Amino acid sequence: MSMTNEQIKQDVRERYARIAGQGRAENAASCCGATDGSKKIYNIMTDDYSSVEGYESNADLGLGCGLPTQFARISRGDTVIDLGSGAGNDCFVARYETGSEGKVIGIDFTPEMINKARENANKLNYNNVEFRQGDIEDMPAADSEADVIVSNCVLNLVPDKQKVMHEIFRVLKPGGHFSISDIVLSGDLPEKLRTDAEMYAGCVSGAIQKEEYLEIIRESGFENIEILKEKVIELPDDILVKYLDEEELADLRNHKTGIFSISVFAVKPGMADKKKQVQSAVEEPCCGPDCC
Fold first, then answer.
1. Alpha carbons 115 and 117: distance in angstroms, whole number
2. Nearest 5°: CA angle at 164, between 206 and 216?
């Protein structure tokens, strides 16, 4: 019997409440820190933040599947919103980019994560980073509040992806953009593996086909959609060999079917704010009748 959307949300909330109390090493041993890890202890999905400016190790629970801030094109003074902000890792990286004159807002619906993120922000004495508890299907954010939205391995957990994408569109300013790292599928995973992957890796169970994911973004009104990074997620052999025959295993290893992390960039159409218009005018020399 399949779960309702509310049951899925409750399951995710309970799972991430437990994760909030775990360390990074424990979380990194499994996908998204959601379940018991493989016998092989290594980071299945996470990217290395250690050389990223603004990185705070205490806020990194090893739950991501990319580096969305790497492609977010954040400017000084921007308002940035991080969806599914966890302990605050990507918020603090974004805060480095936007500077003290900007603002960073993290949204998460797990109270334990919000508390952990606020503790981290207080320790760092950041007064321009705030954390709001709420559901990203119904964001606690005003229309056109953000210049940039980022998210790291979160939308795959959300039952109604269309609703989240419409909310992203609503909250972004005209001319604003998002950079999202997420999990998608390519081809039909063997049912035996998909069933196990759902138990083993909570962040895979809600993943959809890559083309369907991109189509949701297009249908929501975004333009200039780009996949700026894509990597294969390699499930450990000690799981694969239990459930796949030789042909299925070969297809997976040859990436005819598989699980992928993608980092997607897209723009909300419309006139960018005055600050960015001025910046563009400075960067592009004027050769009209009133100059040169």
1. 5
2. 75
- CATH of region 5-268, choose from 3.20.20.70, 3.40.50.150, 3.40.50.300, 3.90.25.10: 3.40.50.150
- The dihedral built from the CA positions of residue 82, 84, 90 and 92, taken in this order, carries a sign that is positive
Per-residue pLDDT band at 95 (split at 50, 70, 90): very high
- Burial (0-12, 13-18, 19+ Cβ within 10 Å), 73: middle
Q: Where are the alpha helices (DSSP H) in 53-205?
A: 89-98, 111-124, 161-171, 191-200, 202-205
Residues 153/45, Cβ–Cβ less than 8 Å: yes
Mean pLDDT of the chain: 81
Contact 147, 97 (CB under 8 A): no
Token reading at 45 = 């999905």
Where are the domains positioned within the chain? 5-268
Mean pLDDT computed over 131-159: 94
Query: For residues 202 and 172, is the Cβ–Cβ distance under 8 A?
Result: no
